[in-house]
């Protein structure tokens, strides 16, 4: 839930930038695409090749654009449905690139097959965390619970990656272990919340074919 609490502070930081972007004709979708492509490229080519500190730093800078596109959309009178979908897809792509790049590094220079597995488990659990919420909201349920949401995942994995790049031993190993445990708990919390929210409700049956 850190992401919700951090938004007001981030909004104050990006507020002075937004009017200039509006005047320049920059759209939220441009920001989303730039942030997604930048994060994916940084993860694949920097983290994946073992440049862990600079990879984590570059990914974080591009991920922060995710905060900017929402503020820009509000300044332009509100976001579009397509923009909301694009933003969600971009988030999933960036997250997958980070953990995929870590798995690639651990399979080569990182030389640790166990953490290849843990990186992939983190990737899958992150997708499940997001999917459960999206599917629940698609049937009219609220699912905002969880101890490790996207902001927490990014902070933990990028801090661990960056510290390892600075030579602090086992930082990334500890981060991935924490993420596996926390993400698994979050998936369980969301499934319990959905079960309680549904309270035995049934999906409407499709009309039978003539």
TrEMBL record:
Mg(2+) 2 binds at residues 66, 87, 91. Mg(2+) 1 binds at residues 66, 69, 87. One of its GO terms (biological process) is phospholipid biosynthetic process. GO terms for molecular function: magnesium ion binding; phosphotransferase activity, for other substituted phosphate groups. The chain crosses the membrane at residues 39-65, 114-134, 154-187. It is an enzyme of class 2 (transferase). The keyword Transferase applies. Its EC number is 2.7.8.-. NCBIfam families: PIPSynth. Belongs to the CDP-alcohol phosphatidyltransferase class-I family. Catalyzes the conjugation of the 1'-hydroxyl group of D-myo-inositol-3-phosphate (also named L-myo-inositol-1-phosphate) with a lipid tail of cytidine diphosphate diacylglycerol (CDP-DAG), forming phosphatidylinositol phosphate (PIP) and CMP. PIP is a precursor of phosphatidylinositol (PI) which is an essential lipid required for cell wall formation. This is Phosphatidylinositol phosphate synthase. It comes from Blastococcus aurantiacus.
